[in-house]
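Lab meeting minutes (informal)
Scribe: AK
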Amino acid sequence: MGEYLVKCTGCGSVQPPHALHCQNDDALLRTEYLTRRLTSRDLPGIWRFYDWLPVRRPLEGVGAAPVTYKSQGLAKELGLRNLYISFSGYWPDKNARMTTCSFKDLEAPPTVERMIERDDQKVLVVPSAGNTARAFAEAASAVDLPLVLVVHSAGLRRLWITGTPSDSICVVSVNGDYTEAIDLGARLSSQPGFVGEGGARNVARRDGMGVVMLDGVLTMKTIPKHYFQAVGSGTGGIAAWEAALRLAGDGRFGTTLPRLHLAQNLPCAPLYSYWSGTKPDLCNFREMYDDVLYNRKPPYEMKGGVKDALENTNGTVYGITNAEAAEARKLFEESEEIDILPAAAVAVAALGKAMATKTVDPKDTVLLNITGGGISHLKEEHDQNILERDLVAESANLVSDLDLLDEINEVLRRHEA
């Protein structure tokens, strides 16, 4: 097993292994692994990095890994000599087989496995804009784990899996944005018999996403000089930073941390506003190129959060318009010959901006995180089984939690029957 401690990034205290909060402050917790060198085990998917995942055993049947390859097409278009792409999606020709077509596939398996290891018989509550819910539905269905998905109404169209949905899943739709889904999920999680997955505070989610950096470095044989990713909460950026810290501690791949280049979709871009010192704009998330990138309450200021990650890596945040994202998506799909999700296009646009402003030198080693793609290939080979909503919360701020809990429990009982 991968032995580890869970420590507070603020006070440094050791916390219980399944803790989400420090008892002394509001800082993020972080895993400290006994194994200090990156090891690739003879296990499938993400479980090859078992020593740097906070679980006692792999979760069978799920856990596909991203694929890292050296770009030819996009690299030529942008004038880069050492561009590597981490592709999280479905692309059989590259041996990429994430059936949710999203890098959220990296978060869900270790989080579900840790939930099983808690052995407290509680129902897991996961708020989502759609992609995360899809990944957790896939992982939970593999083991029939009771699960409540709280998804804002615009995200319901993303709620499908290729396997057979478990009867132990209840879908609650919120007529609001992602933050309202998060708020409702938090209130439900505080009730007896339920537990939240923790979002950015869950070390399993972050270390799962950190596999992108681990796989990339094993392919490149070096820590990249630059790392690009589109973000909503910024948790993926934190994960990349933390994985890079462990790799620098290993020493075999270099000791200089990669510069984080995080991208958001204007005008709904709170992290971009915070980093640039401006007040976040009021915006309609339904007008975004991809609303999964909108989180009104990102983990920015807290110790160990996005701000620390950016400052520690000399990082930056880009604001990308819808038009820029659409143009970048076309460029990527034509040059790499694979379709990508809208969020990934925002990252491609940020890389284009960095090249245009000469922030990145043509010879620099770059890792571009394509956080989702390959749906066209998936549809050719797999059915998409829709998860229908069971309940509707007309307003996350006004709904009676107790009444909703009764309805959720009734849905779960009905499914079990």
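Next up, CB showed the second protein from the same session:
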Amino acid sequence: MPHVTRTIDYRHGTQPLEGFLAYDESVPGPLPAVLIAHAWGGRDEFVCGKARRLAELGYAAFALDMYGKGVLGTGPEQNAQLMQPFMADRALLQGRMKQALETVKALPQVDPERVAAMGFCFGGLCVLDLARSGADLRGVISFHGLFMPPTEVPNQPIRAKVLALHGYDDPMVPPDQVTALAQELTEAGADWQIHMYGHTAHAFTNPAANDPAFGTVYDATADERSWQSLQSFLREVLT
């Protein structure tokens, strides 16, 4: 199906940001929308590619920007430097995610009552924190995300349904953290699912992130399984 893409300028406080919107203009609107939160390197072609794929499925897809217009990391050291302020200040992280959500809800192509958010690695943490903030959206999906809850920001009742897609052998988020997330979501009253993929490490959806020594290994089977699970979940929460 044909789709159109364009960048969207928006702001969080004084920080200029640039999102990437993709949607099929031949589908009658307003459309259900999916926010896409990037990994620690910034809003790159990987998440823009996911936005295009979602547009082909009939969604308005918005690859959001956590770091600032045009800001991309060049490698692990710089990526970590870009991510660290948000790990240290989860109120800042949640505020930036809420701004992206409000920006998407205000787009003329979008049905503001039908919005979900998905994220990869650091972006998985971002969408989980958006849910933890009590934000009004239908669902969140974490792909090989980070799970640690904020300590300085009180969690609110979780209104969004939650789907976490995770590798059992992920060295950055071992099984005890998965169990802790399940307990947290249960105590928050959330409707949650966690899908674990055996013999699967971190960043299993991204061929460009393949670095076994670092613990990131692309897995085509887990990638396809997780994408199928995503589509089923989006049909459930956005129909």
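CB comment: The chain is about 35% helix and 25% strand.
No objections, moving on.
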